[in-house]
Amino acid sequence: MSDAQSVIDIKNALNALAAKDGKDKKSLLAAAAYLEEYAAMLRAAEEAAMKPENGNTRWTEEEERVLAAEYARGLSVADMCAAHARTASGIVSRLGKLGLLKEDDSNGKKHWTEKEELQLAAEYEAQLSLEEMAARHKRSMSGILGRLSKLNLTE
Questions:
Q1: Band of pLDDT at residue 12, cut at 50, 70 and 90
Q2: Does the predicted model carry a pTM greater than 0.90?
Q3: CA dist 21 → 27, 33, 35, 107 (Å)
Q4: 31 vs 7: CA distance, rounded Å
Q5: Which pLDDT belongs to residue 19?
Q6: In angstroms, rounded to a whole number, what is the distance separating the alpha carbons of residues 32 and 79?
Q7: Which residues lie below 8 Å from residue 124, measured CB to CB, with a gap of 6+?
Q8: 60: pLDDT strictly greater than 70
Q9: Which residues of 121-148 are buried (b: 16+ CB within 10 A; e: fewer)?
Q10: Which of 26-35, 50-59, 89-98, 126-135 has the highest mean predicted lDDT (pLDDT)?
């Protein structure tokens, strides 16, 4: 559980107390409002800490050449993320723009079933690579990233 979620839980408890106990209601509600603002600041700090260094910078030609070479050598998306200080979706997107991804997406545009989502979540928890999950589901890495994001499992 994140620090921000812990603060929200405390805020909710204060609100519940305020609803029960009329004599200290004003001070409890004021404390809850303060905690809500504090939780927002914590969430912003947590999100900023999770963003990669190069997340919002343009790709240079040299960085694209290095990325292409890493992909040709079979480096994993996770390793490329670390090497370039970028997100997995940024790496996959750039590989696609460079015309390097040759993915099996035979399920393209097919809706995800609940069973597939549960399987994907289990694979993510088991720390399967993005490439392995894409192969197992016969979907693109972008499709896997998108579904993981929709399930609130990634950045």
A1: confident
A2: no
A3: 11, 17, 19, 56
A4: 11
A5: 74
A6: 42
A7: 133, 148, 153, 154
A8: yes
A9: eebbeeebebeebbeebebbbbbbbbbb
A10: 126-135
